[in-house]
Design a protein that fits this description.
By secondary structure, the chain is an alpha+beta fold. The protein has 16 helices and 18 strands. The protein folds into three domains: 135 residues, no CATH class; 105 residues, no CATH class; 234 residues, no CATH class. Strand 7 and strand 8 form a beta hairpin. Helix 3 packs across helix 4 and helix 3 crosses helix 5. The longest helix has 20 residues. It is globular. The two termini are 29 Å apart.
Length: 563
């Protein structure tokens, strides 16, 4: 988690005049998976788009074997069928075959009745569930070809001449297969659909256009990735003209007064963001899915990103200012930050994606030591060559020869208004240090850039050569020339369950005690208990303490700061 270099231009906000956001929305901590297989299967009909009643959440996209569901039966489903009285206020099925009541989802099972359903990420589809949670989850259900009804076994695809088979369909039987590839094949399907739209169907609809013009024509409709699949399937069945829903969607997408203009894209993309941010969903699983940012118009994309809470800086990278916190492992003691009043970036690194100097951190508390301590829970020896963060040049350990190199390893010196120490060949005093500290950084109202989200949402960043950390789920904090103020830094105790401000920690010890504790740390003594004792004193003094329940896997979005 070493500091990385930034881009220097001044940040410019995404044009949000059409969709102003006073407070960018934070991602939801828990969401339900999206029914991706419906759109991919081609079982969609032409017609008007309906605004979704409820926005589905993320599925964990991976490859796994599905259990054999051939034992599912109508007899089993009867236990989940709702009574007629519960159906009175239920709306008719939408184009996805789903019915809603107060956000809950229901489907009509052919020949049986209506059941409550929830999406099962292991099966990649919905399954019957008991509305009152008294029964275990029931059989998996699949949309019947060309119908709004569902069945406990997938129908054979050969009966639908207008349907494009998925990869591997030739091996399927009329019964539910025992094994099939999970949603991992989705990106390939989406890329194939877009390629076919441009190379085949739009070539037939617009023979006077060249390929580049057809790309611009397709972009003008502002279709989501799964809408590309739907359009491809509709044009296979009816190749002579664009379906009416596409024309209506384009008109809606261009209407800045229409609050539902981004709904289709939001329904597909937003549920992916939190799992991607927290490392539960990998970019490699999404493949070419991120290409959607080049398949819609730039104005529409920027409006959509603004709705999600993103801004764009001068290096064309997306950032957020609503991050509550990030985690960082660091060899510097809380007393050093207290004395200097700030945390400074250090060491030379390539140009980054931030507006100003970057400090790297991670969204995961669990991984914080792996990034800075190489999994050994000890500091990086390269950092320990500096006696403090104001040293411009590294020192030498006892017995080493002098180093008269004219270059500084501290890349902060050229841009900082903090006076650095230019001494060379000083003897290092902390090279034996074993203790590494974990800090929670209050990043509210700071520019935070995340590599994974830029790669998914913003191909422009990669095209412009913006550099992102290689470590997974690592973020860059753009800092001013004075670094991150000490008041934003909270240090966790050795149990990783409590954190206090470094200023409050330092003030619980007098000057001599701080010197003594820090010297022991630099000499290689594992004296974390002394810092823990100071955090105890902070709590006893009634100062704010951040509490993290043990046993929970903590991520950045989980942090709620004490008053």
């Amino acid at each position: 988690m070493r500091p990385k270099n930034p881009s220097l231009p001044t940040p410019s906000r995404i044009n949000t005049s059409a969709d102003p956001l006073a407070h960018p929305p934070r991602l939801r901590p828990q969401v339900q998976p999206p029914p991706l297989h419906h759109s991919l299967s081609g079982n969609r009909t032409s017609g008007h788009d309906q605004p979704p009643t409820a926005i589905p959440g993320p599925s964990r996209i991976e490859v796994s074997d599905l259990p054999d569901l051939s034992q599912d039966s109508a007899t089993t489903l009867n236990s989940y069928v709702l009574s007629p009285g519960l159906l009175r206020n239920m709306q008719a099925a939408n184009e996805e075959g789903l019915r809603f009541v107060v956000g809950r989802k229901f489907v009509d099972v052919k020949g049986i009745g209506t059941v409550h359903v929830e999406f099962d990420t292991n099966l990649g589809t919905y399954r019957a569930t008991d509305l009152y949670k008294k029964l275990t989850p029931g059989p998996a259900l699949y949309r019947n070809v060309g119908e709004m009804t569902w069945s406990p076994a997938r129908q054979a695809d050969s009966g639908s001449p207008g349907k494009r088979p998925l990869a591997g369909d030739e091996q399927r039987t009329e019964a539910t297969p025992a094994k099939q590839q999970r949603v991992t094949s989705m990106p390939a399907q989406l890329k194939a659909a877009t390629s076919e739209l441009l190379g085949v169907h739009f070539a037939q609809l617009y023979p006077q256009m060249n390929h580049g013009e057809r790309v611009m024509e397709l972009r003008s409709y502002n279709l989501s990735p799964l809408q590309h699949v739907r359009l491809r399937d509709d044009l296979i069945a009816h190749p002579s003209a664009l379906p009416e829903w596409v024309v209506q969607h384009k008109a809606r997408s261009l209407n800045t007064d229409d609050s539902a203009r981004y709904d289709a894209l939001h329904q597909e993309i937003e549920p992916l963001l939190l799992p991607l941010r927290n490392g539960k969903l990998l970019l490699s699983h999404l493949g070419d899915y991120g290409g959607f940012s080049e398949s819609i118009s730039r104005d529409f994309l920027d409006g959509f990103l603004a709705k999600l809470g993103y801004l764009r800086n001068g290096s064309d990278c997306l950032y957020r200012t609503d991050f509550p916190a990030l985690f960082r492992a660091d060899e510097r003691t809380p007393f050093e930050f207290y004395n200097d009043g700030r945390m400074l970036p250090r060491l030379k690194h390539p140009r980054g994606a931030t507006t100003e100097k970057p400090i790297s951190a991670t969204v995961s508390l669990k991984l914080v030591h792996e990034y800075a301590g190489r999994g050994t829970d000890s500091p990086d020896p390269e950092y320990l060559r500096y006696n403090n963060q104001k040293n411009k040049y590294p020192g030498r350990k006892p017995g080493e020869s002098d180093n008269e190199s004219g270059e500084s390893d501290n890349d902060w010196s050229d841009a900082s208004d903090v006076e650095l120490d230019s001494e060379r060949n000083y003897e290092t005093m902390r090279h034996a240090q074993q203790v590494i500290f974990t800090y929670v950084i209050d990043t509210r109202k700071m520019e935070v850039v995340l590599g994974e989200e830029n790669h998914l949402l913003n191909n422009a960043a990669r095209k412009n050569g913006a550099w992102f950390p290689e470590d997974e789920i690592e973020a860059l904090i753009s800092t001013s020339k004075r670094g991150i103020e000490a008041e934003r830094l909270w240090m966790l105790d050795s149990t990783f369950t409590r954190a206090a401000k470094v200023e409050d920690i330092a003030e619980q010890a007098d000057y001599d005690s701080r010197i003594h504790i820090e010297e022991r740390t630099h000499q290689g003594v594992n004296n974390r208990h002394q810092y823990d004792a100071l955090i105890d004193k902070v709590a006893q003094a009634g100062k704010p303490v951040l509490t993290l329940n043990k046993g929970k896997e903590w991520f950045a979005n989980d942090i709620v700061w004490p008053e």
